[in-house]
Design goal:
Oligomer: single chain
Radius of gyration: 25 Å
Number of helices: 6
Helix content: 10-25%
Distance between the termini: 76 Å
Structural class: alpha+beta
CATH superfamily of the largest domain: DNA Polymerase III, subunit A, domain 2
CATH topology of the largest domain: DNA Polymerase III, Chain A, domain 2
Number of strands: 25
CATH class of the largest domain: Alpha Beta
Strand order of the largest sheet: 6-2-3-4-17-16-15-10
Strand content: 35-45%
Shape: elongated
Length: 373
């Protein structure tokens, strides 16, 4: 079989899907791209046995249909250095591959395509929904940092999609912080839910940035399929019941602080240098229109304190947070000003943007750390 294809088009498609491939695979064939040529369309498939991604592109010219597998790393590295030009592939019956370009030629060995595992198919009861690519990207971007790495509770290691006939809510939590992102820009035809693991969520994140269309999602109890304009991803879902996230969000928080987000980030970065390295504990003290950010490390006799202006008119109070977690949360909110809602030093702090984006409802929550004073 022979075909001619644009070098940069092929490279960009291969590079996008290559992120699926694990550095160590149990099956050697999973180190490969599966390349299938059919009626002038080249389809490339990669898999790590849990997640499979497929992309297709048109070739300039081709003769017979056929398929072969080739080691991904070698082909990617080789194409990376070739500037935009047509390159031709010729694959013999013994799977010897010749790649010819303007001033040179590569020779490499292919592998039998039949060894490549089939991707999972969905059952009869699959649920289908559509979501705007940028809305999905926004939800993944806002939530993925709060997912856990917990072998004992695998349901916490992904993003929970809670779908109703009115909206879609994406939730992530590691037990210390929680993010709830709700959008009314998309909804399902019925009540449904699934937990998307972290790796496919990250893969989607990389692809969605260039995507303008609607993404079609279909899923059953075990697998989900995401269809983008040039890519199709099938992934195994995390099975199990996700905790009731609404029950952990404190409802009555009488103490409300409004503060400039960048101002608080700057203060936290400076002051947290002096916090205990083991706990990264910082204290936020609130009094009339003032926030005092302080930290100390008793072991090294260091401490720091900084006062910033804010809007606060409730009872004076202090609360402790882990600085790294609080910075994570603040860095994942786009709003210039935020509101921190508090009940007392032992209950979670709720952090929301002062102005929500259109059709969005974003809420972040952080568990406090105990103060010793």
């Amino acid at each position: 079989m022979k075909f001619v294809v644009s070098s940069t088009a092929l490279f960009s498609h291969l590079q996008a899907v290559s992120r699926v491939i694990n550095s160590k695979n149990t099956l050697p064939i999973l180190d490969c791209f599966l390349i299938n040529l059919e009626d002038g369309t080249l389809t490339v498939t990669v898999s790590d046995s849990e997640t499979t991604m497929v992309t297709s592109l048109e070739v300039n010219e081709s003769d017979t249909n056929g398929k072969f597998a080739v080691v991904a790393k070698t082909l990617l590295e080789a194409l990376k250095e070739i500037p935009e030009q047509p390159i031709s592939f010729e694959v013999s019956d013994t799977l010897e591959i010749s790649v010819t370009y303007l001033n040179g030629k590569y020779s490499l060995m292919g592998q039998n395509a039949d060894e490549f595992p089939q991707s999972a198919s969905l059952g009869e009861s699959a649920v289908r929904m559509e979501i705007d690519a940028q809305v999905l990207l926004s939800g993944i971007n806002r939530t993925i940092f709060a997912t856990a790495d917990d072998e004992l509770r695998p349901v916490m290691n992904g993003i929970y999609f809670d779908i109703t006939t009115e909206d879609v809510t994406m939730v992530a939590s590691d037990g210390h912080k929680l993010v709830r992102y709700k959008t009314t820009m998309s909804h399902g035809n019925e009540r449904a839910a699934f937990i998307l693991p972290k790796k496919p969520a990250n893969l989607l994140k990389n692809l969605l940035a260039k995507e303008q269309e609607t993404v079609v999602i279909e899923f059953d109890e075990r697998n989900a399929v995401f269809v983008l304009s040039n890519y199709r991803m099938v992934c195994r879902l995390i099975e199990g019941r996700y905790p009731n996230y609404n029950s952990v969000i404190p409802q009555n928080n009488p103490n409300k602080v409004t503060i400039n987000r960048q101002l608080l980030i700057g203060a936290l970065r400076r002051v947290s240098i002096f916090s205990s390295q083991s706990s990264s504990l910082i204290k936020l003290g609130f009094q009339e229109n003032e926030i005092i950010v302080s930290a100390q490390d008793i072991d090294f006799s260091t401490s720091a304190e900084e006062t910033q202006v804010c809007q606060y008119s409730d009872e004076p109070m202090g609360i402790g947070f882990k600085a790294t977690f609080l910075l994570d949360i603040l860095n994942n909110i786009a709003s210039e000003e935020i509101v921190i809602e508090l009940a007392d030093p032992s209950r979670a702090g709720v952090i929301v943007p002062i102005i929500q984006e259109e059709s969005e409802d974003l809420l972040m929550l952080l568990m406090p750390m105990m103060l010793n004073d």
